[in-house]
From TrEMBL:
Keyword Oxidoreductase (UniProt): no
Keywords carried by this UniProt record: Calcium, Hydrolase, Metal-binding, Signal
PANTHER family named among the record's database cross-references: ARYLSULFATASE FAMILY MEMBER, ARYLSULFATASE G
Pfam families given in the database record: Sulfatase
Region described as Disordered: spans on this chain: 35-54
Protein name: DUF4976 domain-containing protein
CDD domains xref list: ARS_like
Recorded family membership: Belongs to the sulfatase family.
Residue span, Sulfatase N-terminal domain: 60-394
Cofactor names: Ca(2+)
GO terms assigned for molecular function: arylsulfatase activity; metal ion binding
Length: 494
């Protein structure tokens, strides 16, 4: 029995009628072949039909779990010996796991702008570090409105950092979003600084009504998402994005989680690994030995686990497409000013702020039960591809942006190993994270970084040298020329 037929049997008479009407409207026969993207799972809010253009439209629920500042090696599934992340590891095991996924920028705001607008984070001729305008995106480039228009309930929870409210971009619902790049405190009351002095940071709205003494912010936000899912309109699919404030600073976690990690870190033998090595104008942290940060990573994992369990309890795990990602690499680097650092991205080089892979390579998993074959996937993808993919899946349309629809990659019918992608970091922070102005291009296995103020190049074969230790720029001048030409051509477009 085909899956579509099962849906018909399960649906109410009214929904059967509506479904038939849709089929008639599009004068197309329901497609019943068995490729991963051709049939919906039998559950309440899912539907599947052919569009007028003949492309397949699917409407699974969508849950995006986006962690702030989580490094590629901050997960036990990626080799961390200190942070235990069993829930995310399990999710990874059931997902297409990207081994060459990148943020479009090594810091929060441009990275998030790229993700939410589906293109490179370029505005008014530059890549601003802050102050993006997101309330003036035309409708023909607005992915959220496109998905909303396809019948989705859309909701955004947590860190926005792109203006006043995600509703400006078209989300129906938003909770605890807004200007804040981080909470004043992860410990209740969240808008009051713990310890000495007063915070100059923007408070996060909505929190007073939904929290109480003793709460941890990440638990509160997860609970909000859970309530939203439980109370959803079951006649329509939802797209919910939880942008965790974890694991960004301030370093604050639950006492029992800190204690457990402190004990584990004390017992761990770091061998002859140095605590720091030199990088840029400052240092790279080389050990995962911050117990509070470890506790924050593990709390995030616990909350991911709660949401996955909820999807299962609601009977919608099978027809929910789940994306897990981070906005850039972990905070492992300081600059001329020394400070307390979070983690190490080692064996990747450097971290947040830098165009070495430690700054831009991210954990990125896409799960859709029974639809996507769990596997490692080496195609080059970026956060700007997320919404073009979801929009194509749910509307059959492609909007005009640089981000690409990843469905053929997810579906394993295309490989994007030779794709060319770019970065431009003109707002360096030599004091805070030790980076200086640079641009970069990756094409296939090779990555060229250009410190354009000094006109200095470094070239790496990322496949053979993921830690970017062996600079090939002198040995391969022709490749430097080709890649720098492409990089300059890209930069001349903005
Ligand atoms: Ca961030």
């Amino acid at each position: 029995m085909s899956l579509n037929f099962k849906i018909l049997l399960k649906a109410s008479a009214l929904r059967v009628f509506a479904f038939m009407l849709l089929i008639l409207t599009f004068s197309c026969k329901s497609n019943q072949n068995s490729s991963p993207f051709d049939s919906a799972q039998g559950s309440d809010s899912s539907s599947s039909f052919d569009s007028a253009q003949g492309s397949k439209i699917e409407k699974p629920n969508i849950l995006i779990l986006h962690v702030d500042d989580l490094g590629y090696h901050d997960l036990s599934v990626h080799g961390s010996k200190i942070y235990q992340t069993p829930n995310i590891d399990k999710l990874a095991g059931e997902s297409v796991r990207f081994t060459n996924a990148y943020a479009n920028y090594p810091r929060c705001v441009p990275s998030r702008y790229a993700m939410m607008t589906g293109g490179y984070p370029v505005q008014n001729g530059d890549v601003p570090d802050d102050g993006f305008e997101i309330d003036n995106i035309p409708d023909n480039k607005n992915f959220i409105k496109a998905i909303d228009g396809a019948g989705y309930q859309t909701a955004y929870f947590g860190k926005w950092h792109l203006g006043e409210d995600p509703k400006e971009l078209g989300f129906d619902t938003s909770v605890a979003a807004g200007h804040a790049g981080s909470p004043i405190s992860f410990l209740y009351p969240f808008n009051e600084k713990k310890g000495k002095g007063k915070s100059k940071k923007a408070p996060i709205k909505d929190l007073d009504e939904i929290s109480k003494d003793g709460d941890y912010l990440t638990d509160v936000l997860t609970d909000q998402v859970a309530q939203y899912i439980k109370n959803r309109d079951k006649n329509a699919p939802f797209m919910a994005m939880l942008a965790f404030y974890n694991v960004h600073q301030p370093f604050e976690a639950k006492e029992e989680d800190i204690k457990r990690n402190r004990k584990e870190i004390r017992a761990f033998d770091f061998g002859d690994t140095p605590e720091y090595i030199k990088e840029g104008t400052g240092r790279t942290k080389m050990r995962q030995d911050n117990a509070t940060y470890a506790a924050m990573v593990e709390n995030t994992d616990e909350n991911v686990g709660k949401l996955l369990a909820l999807l299962e309890a609601e009977g919608i795990l099978d027809n929910t497409l789940i994306i897990f990602s981070s906005d850039h690499g972990g905070l492992s680097n300081d600059g001329t000013k020394q400070r307390n650092l979070a983690t190490t991205n080692y064996p990747l080089r450097a971290g947040k702020g830098h165009l070495y892979d430690g700054g831009i390579k991210i954990p990125f998993f896409v799960k859709w039960q029974d639809k996507l074959q769990p596997r490692d996937e080496s195609s080059l993808v970026m956060l700007m591809d997320v919404l073009p993919t979801l929009t194509n899946l749910t509307t059959g349309k492609n909007l005009e942006t640089e981000g690409q629809n990843m469905l053929p990659v997810l579906n394993d019918t295309e490989e994007w190993d030779d794709r060319t992608v770019f970065w431009h970091s003109s707002k360096a922070r030599p004091t805070n994270t030790g980076d200086t102005k640079s641009s970069a291009v990756r094409e296939g296995d090779f990555k060229l970084i250009h410190w354009y103020k000094e006109n200095r190049f470094e070239l790496y074969n990322i496949a053979q040298d993921p830690g970017e230790q062996n600079d090939l720029s002198k040995a391969m001048p022709e490749r430097v020329r080709t890649l720098s030409r492409k990089l300059n051509n890209w930069k001349s477009t903005f």
